[in-house]
Structure formats: C-alpha cells, structure tokens
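Tokens for chain A. Residues wanted.
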C-alpha cells in the first residue's frame, strides 16, 4: 500500500503543498513584523515616570518610553551574573527610551521590573524632538525670549507651541536661502572658476576675459553677501527664544528653539490629536531630509534617488533588451552561436550582483569616466567629474544587471506569437520590418512590459553594486535641481536599500535606528509590491487587447 501510495505521486504533492505553505507563512510573518514595527514607529507613545531603586542604592526617578520587554528564565539570568531570589522564576526587564543623551550619555537603558517601586503617566510630561542629541524628556517650566521669561506655569505650553511654529517658519526661510539662493550662487561661482581654468588651458585668458570674469564674480559675491546678511538676521531671530525644562533628576535645562523640531505631551493627547501627530510624522518621514546620522527625520532624498535611478535604468535597459531579443528570435540564424548566446544570457542572470558593481567601478567609472574627463572636462582635473561613482554609472550598471531578464522575457513573448500571423502580414504586402513593428512587437508587449517591470522591481532592491558605483550615506544635493543643466548625472545619490543597510548596521545608536529600519524596509517592500502589481495589471490588459489576434 505504501509503495502504491508513493507511486501515485501523492506524497510529493503533499510535500510541495507543505513547502509552499511554509514559505507563505514565513513571508507573511516577515511582512507582518516589518509592518507592525514600521507603522507603529510614528505613533506617540506614553511617557512613564518610574520610581526605581536597585539593591543598596537610593531611590531615583526614570522618565521615558517603554520600548521593549525582555523575559529571561531564572537559570539563564543567574548564568549571566544576575542575583535571583529562590522564588523568582523569571527576570523581567524593560527597555526605556529615556532620551537626554547630552546629559546622561545614552538615551536607552534597561531596568529590572522587580526594582520598580512605582510608575505613573503624568499628564504634564513633555517630549521635545531636537535637531541634535535626540529626544528630551521632562517637564516644561517656562519660556524665555531674549533671556527673559515670557510665560511660565499653565500659560507656558500654548506660548511654547506658538514660538515653535514661528521658529519653524524662520527655519524654512533659512533652508530656502541656503539650499536655493546661496546654493545657486556657489554653483555659479564654481562654473565660473572652471570657465576661467578652461580659458587658461586654451591660452585664451587675455585681459578682456579676465575683466569679464572678475566683473561676473564680483556680482555673485555681492549677492552672496546680501544673502549672508539675511541669514545672520534670521539665525539671530530664531536664537532669541528658548524653553526651560526640568529633567528626571530635577536638573533644569535651557533648550534654544533653534534646536527644536516639535514639542508635545503624549499623555495629555486624545485619540484625534494622536492621529494628527501620526499623520504629521508620516509626512515628515516621506518628505523631509534625514538628520541625526539618518536616525531621525525623513528619507525623501533616498526615495528621490531610488526613483530617479530606476527610471534612468529603465530608459537604458528597455531598448537594448528588446533589440537583442528581436535579433535573436527574428533575424539571427538558429544555430550553435545563437544557442551559445542564449546560454550566456541565462548565465548572466545568475551572476552575483556585487560582480556587476565591481565591473561597473572598473570599466564605467575608472576607464570610461576617466577618459570622458580627459576629453571633455580637462579644466576640472585632478578633481573627477565622471571619473567617480555617480547616478549615470549606477543606472548603467543596474541596466546591465537586469538586461538578461528583459531579453529572456521579450524573447519568450516573441516565441509565443504564431508564425501564421507573420506569414499573413507578409502575404498582405507588408515588409518584414513593418510586420515586426506593427504586428509582432505589439502582440509581444505583455511579455516585454512584464520583463521590464520585473527588472525594475529587482533594481529597486539592489544594494551591493550601488555601494561601488554611486550611492552614499548622505547626499548634500539632489541629482535634479534648478541649476543648469538641471539633471546632474555625475552626482552621487541616496537609495532606500542602502539607507536600510546604513541605518541598521552602521548607525552609532542602534536602538534609536531600529524603528526607522523597519519603516524604511516597509516602504521599500511597498514600492516593489506596487511595481509587481503594476506588471500584472499591464500584462493582463495587453493580453486581453491582443487575444483576438492570437486566436
């Protein structure tokens, strides 16, 4: 009976079903973990005040958010050096985000639940998100302006919110001046310097040229001084106001509002206020620049860099992949050489991505980019322009990496088109090129689009090759801006995949970075899932459109 059962193939069906079910459970589990940790990062947590006393030490107060709980069996706790009573079965510890890193040196600490004497959630507990040193936890005492108190007690909180809004408005003006106006002047001055160097190399730097360049430079410097004066006034204005708060130890700390992003009292917030706070944090995450070594703020430059790189990669890989597939299927003689090329293409799909990165760095960056600098940008040397990793080389490297996917998918789509359609088109008087362009390629477009978007989905998640050919931890400027020639292919950029790696493994503050890793990973997964869903929708629509012709 068992032998007959095995011969029937039923065990292998059940084995496959079990493997598929296990894989689905694992995928759902990973996605659920990433979703819960990523989405929950932006929700305002309660701030708890603990009365804590360790053995033989004085009672002290700890303020912060309860981030995690650890439960360790007594035997394991004893083996790691903890003293356990005979009636204790487990050691329960809380991970508290206590902030105030500028005062204590660390903004996370573990405490033992058995040493907590009392805990409460005071309504007046305040969280201050700062541009430096992470969060501050404490109680608001007063608000100062010009070194003099302007509000204290109950009146201090609404005044503080008003002053923070004013400070943020000033900071928007400062950011606009620094990034747009002064950034444009610095860019123009650099181009002017390169223009002067180019004239010098061409022996055309005469007195008239020097005079014109000096006049142009003087105009830029005059504008620069005006903006610097405006900046000094704005900085002075924002530095006048500060808040005074008390810490968990009773110490008072004065925090200038120039270093404050927002202040809120989570224990006093209702559900509607928390939803507004949550939406604000999500928008900040998607639209702002990172800060605090990428552990705070937003990831907009990484989103922008990822989308820009993927779009450029798509523009490069599509024509090459489609042309290669058309030649192999429609024009090349089906012999040994063609079969060898197909084997090579299929093998390229299995090459580790980091190998493509090494090739891109050696060939595209050093050889191709170095020669481009020698021929077209001699005035910039020895500083490289295209002879250094950048957006262009990253896009070409990933286009090379994803080229086999597009070729194989397009060729399979061409192979599925019946030969009778080609013969009918030729019989009606169409040339081979017209048949290919007007009949065959449109019918193969579902496979072409599927291959392209699968390539895009893979490129969006690649990290290893990008580390060698253009991605950086923090890019000061975006590859696309208002300065001529607007699209700067030589600039380095940020990427979501590398951002996850950097924040998760290179951050000096691992506990603070962990929630941001989950949130960024969730965003990257959503991008890739969206691309794959788009592939399915486009493929199905095109398939329905040309089903009648196939019939």
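Reply:
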């Amino acid at each position: 009976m068992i032998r007959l059962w095995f011969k029937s193939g039923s065990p292998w069906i059940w084995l496959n079903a079990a493997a598929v079910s296990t894989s689905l459970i694992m995928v759902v589990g990973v996605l659920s973990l990433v979703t819960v940790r990523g989405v929950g990062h932006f929700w305002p947590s309660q701030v708890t005040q603990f009365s804590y006393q360790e053995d033989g030490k004085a009672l002290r107060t700890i303020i912060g958010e309860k981030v995690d709980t650890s439960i360790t069996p007594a035997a394991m706790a004893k083996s790691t050096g903890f003293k356990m009573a005979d009636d204790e079965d487990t050691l329960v510890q809380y991970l508290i985000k206590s902030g105030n890193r500028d005062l204590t040196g660390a903004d996370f600490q573990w405490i033992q639940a058995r040493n907590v004497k009392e805990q409460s959630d005071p309504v007046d507990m305040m969280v201050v998100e700062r541009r430096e040193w992470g969060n501050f936890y404490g109680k608001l005492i007063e608000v100062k302006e010009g070194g003099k108190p302007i509000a204290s007690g109950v009146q201090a909180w609404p005044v503080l919110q008003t002053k923070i809004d004013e400070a943020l408005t000033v900071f928007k003006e400062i950011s606009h001046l620094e990034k747009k106006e002064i950034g444009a002047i610095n860019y123009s001055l650099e181009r002017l310097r390169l223009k002067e160097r180019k004239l010098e190399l061409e022996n055309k730097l005469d007195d008239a040229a020097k005079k014109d360049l000096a006049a142009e430079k003087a105009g830029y410097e005059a504008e620069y001084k005006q903006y610097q004066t405006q900046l000094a006034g704005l900085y002075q204005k924002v530095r006048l106001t500060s808040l005074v708060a008390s810490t968990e130890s009773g110490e008072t700390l004065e925090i200038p509002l120039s270093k404050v992003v927002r202040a809120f009292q989570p224990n006093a917030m209702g559900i509607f206020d928390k939803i507004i706070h949550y939406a604000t944090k999500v928008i900040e995450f998607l639209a702002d620049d990172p800060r605090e070594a990428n552990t705070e703020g937003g990831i907009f430059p990484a989103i922008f860099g990822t989308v820009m790189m993927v779009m450029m990669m798509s523009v490069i890989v599509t024509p090459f992949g489609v042309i290669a597939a058309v030649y192999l299927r429609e024009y090349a003689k089906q012999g040994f050489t063609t079969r060898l090329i197909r084997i090579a293409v299929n093998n390229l799909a299995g090459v580790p991505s980091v190998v493509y990165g090494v090739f891109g760095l050696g060939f595209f960056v050093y050889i191709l980019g170095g020669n481009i600098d020698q021929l077209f940008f001699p005035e910039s040397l020895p500083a490289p322009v295209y002879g250094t990793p950048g957006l262009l080389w990253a896009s070409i490297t990933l286009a090379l990496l994803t080229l086999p996917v597009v070729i194989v998918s397009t060729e399979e789509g061409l192979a599925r088109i019946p030969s009778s359609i080609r013969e009918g088109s030729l019989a009606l008087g169409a040339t081979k090129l017209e048949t290919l362009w007007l009949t065959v390629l449109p019918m193969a477009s579902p496979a072409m689009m599927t291959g392209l978007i699968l390539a895009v989905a893979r490129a969006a998640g690649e990290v290893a090759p990008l580390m060698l050919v253009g991605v950086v931890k923090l890019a000061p400027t975006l590859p696309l801006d208002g300065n001529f020639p607007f699209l700067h292919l030589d600039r380095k950029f940020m990427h979501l995949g590398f951002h996850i790696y950097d924040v998760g493994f290179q951050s000096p503050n691992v506990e603070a970075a962990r929630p941001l890793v989950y949130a960024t990973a969730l965003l990257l997964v959503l991008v890739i899932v969206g691309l794959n869903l788009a592939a399915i929708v486009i493929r199905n629509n095109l398939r329905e459109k040309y089903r009648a012709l196939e019939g």
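DSSP finds 17 helices and 13 strands in the chain. Residues 48-121 form one domain.
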